[in-house]
Amino acid sequence: MRRSRPLAAALFAASFALAACAPQAPLVGDPFNEIIEGAQGGMPLPPESRYEKADSRPPNLPNGVVPDATPAPGTGPAEDRIPEIVDRGRIIIGVDQSLNLLGFRDSTTGELAGFEVALAQEIARDIFGSPDAVEFRYVDSTERIEALDSGRVDAVVRTMSVTPDREAAVDFSAPYLTARAGILVPASDAENQEGAISSAADLNGRRVCVAADSTPEEIVREEAPGAMLLLVRSWSDCLVALQQHQADAVVSDDTILAGINDQDPGTAIVRRGLSTENYAVGVKEGNVGLASQVNLTMERIRGDGTWQQLYDTWLGAFLPGGFQPSGTYAEVER
């Protein structure tokens, strides 16, 4: 045994020397490597996202078209308008779970929260007498219409702005929120006067993150055809892309940008008012009864001050002076 110890020591020393001379492979899972990758923009893109030139197709903007009239608020019992939902005992509503301030999962409680979540609960309250009689299902921005068509959800309350194309595919309630598109960038870039982004024209030649099939996507195609779009599934992916240096700016509604800025104070909103549009609750095309029921809630929360309370709770500190938009109603055929 005594003779074997020097031999083992010699073998260990030799192997150590050989290892020192051999090329060193990067450490697997080394967090410092991930930091370097992120700083260089080499991290993987968010799932199902892609780059696309803004001028790869013509823009498709509403251009000030007046929205269609929506069914007048319902009267009488809810079961006369939506018997299937009443029989089920709950309404199924599609929301987001990662849009801070609008629809997100509270990390402290694990529960969904935000302005749009609270609005969905008010709709349930007027049907069942309880704000808890709602089943939430997650839908991303690219599948809102499909979720309604397939019956996976009864309604969508997820930053769905009213546009002619969408009006041809779904029915809308009266609007519940007015949004104005803007630009968000890293705060350090906003402070750098040389080459800073401060207008839509400055987006040309930059990588701009937008949610696919969204109105902000069309705004960038119109206002900055020389930009490179990063099309993602959800707006939360844009924050990740900005932090990983995969995008130079985010173009979205101010309601969404406020949530991103709240999550990451290292960002700054440098431009607002690129467009004005209204969010409304989407229901399956032809479901007049449900649209009428939702509009009953819209007018109730206007009259009793609930809308203003919800707005002040979730958005007032970031976007002061908000007010509930009015709807144009058409009489429901009996």
TrEMBL record:
Region (Disordered) residue spans: 38-81
InterPro entries: Bact_solute-bind_prot3, Iontro_rcpt_C, Solute-binding_3/MltF_N
Protein name: Glutamate ABC transporter substrate-binding protein
Tagged with keyword Transmembrane: no
Pfam families: SBP_bac_3 (PF00497)
Domain Solute-binding protein family 3/N-terminal, first and last residues per copy: 90-318
Organism lineage string: Bacteria, Bacillati, Actinomycetota, Actinomycetes, Mycobacteriales
SMART domains (UniProt xref): PBPb, PBPe
Domain Ionotropic glutamate receptor C-terminal: 90-317
Signal peptide: 1-19
Organism expressing this protein natively: Corynebacterium hansenii
CDD domains named in the record: PBP2_GluB
Similarity field: Belongs to the bacterial solute-binding protein 3 family.
Keywords, comma-separated and alphabetical: Signal, Transport
